[in-house]
């Protein structure tokens, strides 16, 4: 678009271009040939155009109705190929990238890693499939076609768990010129990894050059903040993936692909892949911003014109932006399949095994960071509901509520006891007082820096420091100032929960240090701003639900070990009746169940 190129134009239909047309779009849809004069930055001499009036909508329709089919070779060829195979009587299998949970009896539910028989792929977005005796519709974007379609289904596990299987039968079969079936299967997986990485790089390049580059030229339509919201850190991902694919190419054995040793590449880049965390966390915001913009027609035509100019396949921008989220989910599946067809004697075996675990950890880390980022909004809302707040915001030092509950705090010098609500976050313990009449309202009283504290279990009986008899007690002792805080719980089990919570708090702090987890200043400020807006939107402070009901909901039931996982989940995450006011549950309720 910005290269110095000139065109002799043979006009088909002439259009003036409004301000929402990407730079260089006036080159697309025209027949040209390169000539000697130079026009920089993709701009055409407007005198070369006639004065025929046409709108962007006309231009867009011309493109759609013309014979041009921009996109990667084949366009929707994969979908056509699947249907041809199915119509010929072949069996086509796909692996689930994510869980598909549904209550609709017309849809097929499955878990990540399940293998689905694809029975109909005529619809681009929804396919019909079967798992054992169950059939139904499922979203095509939730699955990845299995590489080795010719492998007998009985030799393939219904769930890809990453690893080793009994290969006594398949490993001895021969394929072609002295190559075992297992080696050929490994060749297929290696080829898929290499080819999908090349396609992915092309895809990222198209987004960066086809959309972002054009958007930045239109400061009248997009602010830099909007572009950051829509595209996140996809340019960083593009730079990372370019280096990664070069490393893969070096390890790729073109003559004998099954001998390729690619496991070390994944191990080398496992830390850099953590940049996907920021992208995945931002993706819902990108979808909301795109949804807002595409309600305005000029943005719809702008984005479509960008796609046509870059000659990208017929998918909307939000579909393109989903690809990095899908990609990071595919790596564990690809590595699990690669490990399945890698003999233990292969030089790549240990690296592939370690790479599989590493990429699973990356996926887990991304999920955990997403959960933590969702929590900071709830923490900000909680703080905005506290009366008489003093000092810095909770989010300055903390991003996780570990535990909360009522305790009796005993203070020097007269061993004065006070009933207080305590909220244990990473790095700090916040103390609040309940309103005497309106028990749902909390007032800020103090906080304790947990980084300076050690926890001391106190036996029932007379305490020497405070010279009083205590029960279900523990102390927080400051190593620097020798200051001591004494707390008493109502029941022994409540005390044990608090002691366990303090252990979890220190473990969380250590884990965050090891993984480098942090919340950016922008994210903190945005969370507090959102909470402030909600707080001032006229919602009443009072709640009608008795505080006793709230306390009852805070009990931690011991779940029977014999319950199936789905039942355990339903008990752990009960469905609550919708409430008119968010304060009903969020004012005091711990955010982590």
Automatic annotation (TrEMBL):
Spans annotated as Disordered = 156-178
The record lists the lineage as: Eukaryota, Metazoa, Chordata, Craniata, Vertebrata
Q: What range(s) does the SH3 domain occupy?
A: 89-148
GO cellular component terms, alphabetically, are: cytoplasm
Looking up PANTHER family in the UniProt record yields: RHO GUANINE NUCLEOTIDE EXCHANGE FACTOR 4 (PTHR47544:SF2)
Q: Does the keyword Ribosomal protein apply?
A: no
CDD domains hit by this protein: PH_Collybistin_ASEF, RhoGEF, SH3_ASEF
Q: Which residues form the DH domain?
A: 185-369
User: Main location per UniProt?
Assistant: cytoplasm
Ranges for domain PH come to 400-507
Name the UniProt record assigns to this protein: ARHG4 factor
Q: Where is the composition biased (Basic and acidic residues)?
A: 156-167
GO MF annotation: an example: guanyl-nucleotide exchange factor activity
Q: Biological process GO terms, please?
A: intracellular signal transduction
**Stored InterPro entries:** DBL_dom_sf, DH_dom, GDS_CDC24_CS, PH-like_dom_sf, PH_domain, SH3-like_dom_sf, SH3_domain, SOS1_NGEF_PH
Q: Which organism is it from?
A: Uria aalge
What compartments host this protein? Cytoplasm
* Keyword terms of this UniProt record: Cytoplasm, Guanine-nucleotide releasing factor, SH3 domain
């Amino acid at each position: 678009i910005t290269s110095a190129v000139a065109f002799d134009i043979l006009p088909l239909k002439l259009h003036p271009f409004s301000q929402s047309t990407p730079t260089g779009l006036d080159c697309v849809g025209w027949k040209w040939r390169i000539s000697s004069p130079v026009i920089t930055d993709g701009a055409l001499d407007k005198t070369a155009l006639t004065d025929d009036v046409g709108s962007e909508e006309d231009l867009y329709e011309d493109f759609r109705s013309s014979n041009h089919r921009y996109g990667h070779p084949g366009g929707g060829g994969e979908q056509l190929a699947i249907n041809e195979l199915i119509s010929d009587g072949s069996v086509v299998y796909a692996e689930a990238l994510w869980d598909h949970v549904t209550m609709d009896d017309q849809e097929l539910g499955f878990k990540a890693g399940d293998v689905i028989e694809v029975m109909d792929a005529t619809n681009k977005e929804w396919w019909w499939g079967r798992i054992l005796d169950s059939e139904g519709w499922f979203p095509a974007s939730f699955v990845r076609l299995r590489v080795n379609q010719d492998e007998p289904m009985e030799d393939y596990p219904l769930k890809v768990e990453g690893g080793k299987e009994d290969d006594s039968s398949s490993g001895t079969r021969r394929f072609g010129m002295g190559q075992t079936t297992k080696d050929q299967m490994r060749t297929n997986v290696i080829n898929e990894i290499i080819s999908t990485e090349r396609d992915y790089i092309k895809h990222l390049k198209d987004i960066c050059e086809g959309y972002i580059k054009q958007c930045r030229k239109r400061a009248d339509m997009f602010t830099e903040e909007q572009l950051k919201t829509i595209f996140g850190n996809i340019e960083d991902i593009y730079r990372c993936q370019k280096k990664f694919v070069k490393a893969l190419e070096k390890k790729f054995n073109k003559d004998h692909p099954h001998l390729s040793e690619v496991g070390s590449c994944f191990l080398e880049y496992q830390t850099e892949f953590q940049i996907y965390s920021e992208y995945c966390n931002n993706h819902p915001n990108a979808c909301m911003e795109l949804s807002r913009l595409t309600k305005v027609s000029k943005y719809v035509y702008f984005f479509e014109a960008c796609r046509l100019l870059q000659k990208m396949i017929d998918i909307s921008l939000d579909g393109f932006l989903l690809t990095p989220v899908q990609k990071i989910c595919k790596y564990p599946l690809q590595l699990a399949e690669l490990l399945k067809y890698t003999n233990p004697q292969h030089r790549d075996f240990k690296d592939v095994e370690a790479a599989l675990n590493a990429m699973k950890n990356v996926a887990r880390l991304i999920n955990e960071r997403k959960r933590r980022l969702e929590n900071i909004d709830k923490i900000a809302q909680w703080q905005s509901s506290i009366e008489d707040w003093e000092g810095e915001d909770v989010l300055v030092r903390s991003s996780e509520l570990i535990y909360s509950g009522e305790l009796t705090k005993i203070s020097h010098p007269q061993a004065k006891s006070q009933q207080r609500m305590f909220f244990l976050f990473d790095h700090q313990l916040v103390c609040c007082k309940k309103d005497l009449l309106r028990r749902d309202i909390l007032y800020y009283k103090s906080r304790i820096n947990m980084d300076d504290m050690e926890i001391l279990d106190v036996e029932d009986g007379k305490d020497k420091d405070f010279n009083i008899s205590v029960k279900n007690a523990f102390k927080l002792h400051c190593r620097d100032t020798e200051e001591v805080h004494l707390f008493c719980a109502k029941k022994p089990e409540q005390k044990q929960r608090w002691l366990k919570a303090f252990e979890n708090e220190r473990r969380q702090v250590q884990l965050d240090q090891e993984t480098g987890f942090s919340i950016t200043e922008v994210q903190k400020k945005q969370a507090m701003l959102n909470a402030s807006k909600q707080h001032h939107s006229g919602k009443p402070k009072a709640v009608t639900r008795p505080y006793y009901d709230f306390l009852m909901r805070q009990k931690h039931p011991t779940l029977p070990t014999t319950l199936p996982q789905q039942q355990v989940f339903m008990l752990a995450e009960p469905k609550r009746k919708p409430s008119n006011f968010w304060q009903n549950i969020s004012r005091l309720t711990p955010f982590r169940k």
